[in-house]
Specification:
The protein is α/β, with parallel strands linked by helices. The protein contains 13 helices and nine strands. The strands form two sheets. The protein has a seven-stranded mixed β-sheet with strand order 5-4-3-6-7-9-8, sandwiched between helices. Strand 4 (182-187), helix 10 and strand 5 (208-212) form a beta-alpha-beta unit. Bound molecules: S-adenosylmethionine (SAM). One of its GO terms (molecular function) is O-methyltransferase activity.
Length: 327
Amino acid sequence: MTLPELLQLSGSYWSTCTLHAGVKLDVFTPLADRSLTVSQLARLIAADERGLDMLLNALTAMDLLSKEEGTFRATPFSAEYLSTTSDTYMGHIIMHHHHLVVGWSRLDEAVKNGAPVRRRSSHEARAAERESFLLGMFDLASLLAPKVAAQIELNGRRRMLDLAGGPGTYAIHFCKRNPDLTAVIFDLPTTRPFAEQTVDRFGLSGRIAFRAGDITTDDIGTGYDVIWVSHLLHSEGPAACAAIVAKAAAALNDGGLLLIQEFILNDNRVAPLHPALFSLNMLVGTPAGKAYAQGELQEMMKAAGLRGIRRLEIDLPNGAGIMAGTR
Ligand SMILES: C[S@@+](CC[C@H](N)C(=O)[O-])C[C@H]1O[C@@H](n2cnc3c(N)ncnc32)[C@H](O)[C@@H]1O
């Protein structure tokens, strides 16, 4: 690393906060299909003109707006991803990132005390935070689930459990891809409205049911041909994860397939970068969560009595990977 790169890294949260403010104030939606002056937009979103002028100029400097003759307009890119009117709006995940900033700013405390410094997104979030978290999961998973579902052979498998499935994005895409498949999304009771709305939007309410419960204490049912566990384990400590994997293995039919998607660390735990940082995200936000190394996941699956444990050859961003094992 060079010194300019170090200083750039240190101050890069300024750009992050500028993006978050733009999304939080929803400046992109009114600018998606027309140009407005600062005063016009300030009236529309009830903001101070001086502050908004600075924000819009900075967003223009960041290539998220264009400015011509004193009027601002969204770029085609920001109209596609940052306008609430777009089907590919990414604002929920950006607002989820925004809610995490306060916790990250106290990372040093979490490291000193080994304890979280913010509310847990899945269990303790306020309504607006829960919405950004769950719909943000939908934003992210929607980019990957069609590709994942296309690369995992589920021929002959009829019943899927999407364990901690959140809004059910993966259950939806696995069902779309496999016409004979039905699915159950298991998640906390507070997730139900988000999952049911999403499933309904895809016209799959007849094939995908929601089952409310806490994986650490409640029954998840039995008789599944495939169980998909995506981005759950990192929120729990090793003992709880081993218990979850064992519970999932026990809920499979003989020959059933367990699939675990996580941000997976190499066994020396210093790479890839995203899982290494994600571990810290779990430190600030959960009592015992962390990113797991591939060897740790393999051990949990082996201890649960699974066979044929392997990492699927599916190329995913951010160090994500999918482990598979058969009962
Ligand atoms: C990071 S999200 C992942 C959602 C989805 N699996 C995906 O990959 O898009 C984690 C999900 O686990 C759920 N969850 C966390 N702890 C849980 C628990 N103890 N019991 C049931 N669900 C839980 C959360 O509500 C959330 O929907």
